[in-house]
């Protein structure tokens, strides 16, 4: 989103601070919490192959995602970005709920969320393109590339983990629906 419309985020310096905030709150601190669960005996391995082992990490990540969304509600970021953050929270808790009854791929959940975000972004900010140096890609091309990557992620997840195709499809659906719900609620 910053590449497509950097002005919506208040300039380059503010964008760097935002990226650091998002990275630390949605990845770094939750990852540290999950890594600390291993020596405490709360999880057997970082792969968390057993669905029961994933309960604690889901809760840790969910708390920090909610905190990130709460911080974004005050207008610090574009409204659409805050809605996507809410959608990510919903996706995480939806996957947590599904995990109680069966397995779900979080990789696929993330990819389903990303596809929904790019679709919404293409409609909400028509005419914007993603820029990387001299290269500018239309949002439609970005969406097509993302769908291909999502398929590869699903395939590799099935091939390299204990997930079956239904776990992958549940993830895609959970992520996609969660972003739509976050968009409408936010």
List keywords for this structure.
186 residues; mainly alpha; two-stranded antiparallel ribbon; 6 helices; globular
Provide a concise account of the structure shown.
By secondary structure, the chain is mainly α. 69% of the residues lie in helices and 4% in strands.
The strand line-up of the biggest sheet is: 1-2
Rg estimate, integer Å: 17 Å
Mean pLDDT: 89
Helix content class: 55-70%
Instruction: Give the number of helices.
Output: 6
Structural class: mainly alpha
The general outline is globular
Number of strands: 2
> In this structure, how is the largest beta sheet organized?
2 strands, antiparallel
Regions with pLDDT < 50 over 5+ consecutive residues? none
- Quaternary class: single chain
Distance between the termini: 17 Å
Provide the number of structural domains: 1
Strand content: under 5%
Q: What is the helix/strand order?
A: HHHHEEHH
Secondary structure blueprint with pairings:
Layout: H1 12-37, H2 55-72, H3 79-101, H4 106-124, E1 129-132, E2 135-138, H5 139-160, H6 165-185
């Amino acid at each position: 989103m910053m590449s497509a419309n950097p002005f919506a985020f208040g300039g380059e310096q503010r964008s760097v601070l935002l990226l650091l905030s998002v990275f630390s709150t949605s990845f770094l601190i939750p990852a540290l919490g999950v890594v600390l669960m291993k020596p405490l005996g709360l999880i057997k391995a970082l792969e968390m192959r057993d669905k029961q082992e994933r309960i604690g990490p889901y809760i840790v990540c969910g708390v920090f995602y909610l905190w990130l969304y709460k911080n974004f509600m005050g207008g610090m970021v574009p409204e659409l970005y805050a809605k996507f953050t809410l959608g990510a929270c919903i996706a995480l808790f939806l996957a947590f709920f599904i995990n109680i009854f069966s397995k779900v791929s979080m990789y696929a959940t993330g990819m389903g969320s990303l596809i929904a975000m790019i679709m919404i972004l293409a409609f909400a900010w028509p005419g914007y393109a993603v820029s990387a140096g001299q290269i500018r890609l239309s949002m439609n091309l970005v969406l097509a590339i993302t769908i291909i990557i999502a398929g590869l992620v699903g395939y590799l997840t099935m091939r390299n983990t204990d997930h079956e195709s239904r776990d992958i499809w549940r993830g895609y659906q959970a992520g996609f629906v969660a972003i739509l719900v976050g968009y409408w609620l936010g």
